[in-house]
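#onboarding

Welcome to the new folks! Below is a worked example of what a typical request in this channel looks like: someone posts a single protein sequence, and someone else replies with the predicted structure as tokens. Don't worry about understanding the tokens yet, we'll cover that in week two.

Example request:
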Amino acid sequence: MTATPAASAAAPSPVIDRRMVRAWALWDWGSAAFNAVVTTFVFSTYLASSLFVDPAIVAAASDDTRNPVLLLAKAQNATVISAALTVAGVLVALFAPILGQRSDGTGRRKLWLGINSALVVLAMAAMFFVAPAPGFLVLGAALLAAGNVFFEFASVNYNAMLVQVSTPATVGRVSGFGWGMGYVGGIVLLILLLVLFIQSFGSPTANGLLNVPFGTDGASLDVRFAILLSAGWFAVFAIPVLRRVPEIAASPAAQALPRSQPSPQAQSFPRSQRQGVLASYRRLFATVRMLSKRSPQVLLFLLASAVFRDGLAAIFTFGAIIAGQVFGFSSAEVIYFAVAANVVAGLGTFVSGWLDDRIGAKAIIIGALVGLVLAGSAVLFIGTAKSGFWIAGLTLCLFVGPVQSSSRSFLARITPPGREGEIFGLYATTGRAVSFLAPLLFGIAVAVTGDTRYGIVGIVIVLTAGLLLMLPVRAIQSRID
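Example response:
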């Protein structure tokens, strides 16, 4: 396809601006505040803890952490969190098509990245007010869901920027560098939270160097202050990309179109157009039909990645819940595991990013998905020993980052030149279209068995389905003429 002037404006420079790459990657570094602290290791575990169970049930269970009534109550709390995330997935699936289309080609990619990042920060800051009592469970689950919604919207624009800060020969390394920075940022932040707020250092009543009171008596201020600091962390490290990476140029050709005339290349809405919800979905379906005829590899990959990315998200969301409820990890032990997990995941991502440009992104994705399915299945057979979870959990983490990073670079490679923003918007749309699947299957498995451990079955099913869908996808550049 011959690049139009508008398409060329969004094309990457032949030479990488390393400062721009670092600024772009710092958003990944800062996003660890949400991915690692909120959805995985701290806030979600806090919500699923006995602090949000009826105090009478906790008192009756005494010190018996395996008390059936207590386990059932915790499982019900995990189901509430699952339901909230299911609703979040449905909302993203409904609104991502509209928001993705309107931000593509309008010259407002960076603007919407900033707005949605700010909304994530606000949701995180509000989590400070989720006190450790059953009556606050719904509020906490709602804020967790809202943060996920706005984080996904921000990620659409952030991922589309990959082609602005890389070249075709380096897209794998740049993508891997970004994901790796996210894991390193997670390590630094988690250690900081551990030292300042969570580690007791032998104190029977307080945690961290700041001597913050913990538990019910202290209103769990250790966890709540940790989330508040994490909100500030994300806010600070979201700034460089907004300052250093230039805004994309709006499409002059698209802006010149009358309201009734669609773009000849099915581009997203120009700034001058304001179409309704139904028109937005008609445009989306037209794009999908066009891809099925002229660029089937893009469509096949979008379908496969939509499924396996939902499984990856569920690993982040429910992994720490399983660690706490099934294997008896304390809050501090969850953080220790989180630090180790980020070290392993970061190493895996940096290495896979280097291999991506040499052996291809598809090989990385397939191999990592196989590893995820095997490691996830192992959780069912390792009993309740913490050492078993350490082995299986760290193995999972080794493969999660490579799938994420190589999926981003794979799509950048097979996307028609000049259509990156549009396709990455569709990438988010298709991903969230089934984003309720893994949380739903997790919740069903837990509800049916009454045991949080079996929620992993739902996650493994989704990962396996994504693996099978990925096998026939070919890594070839697509054309839309």
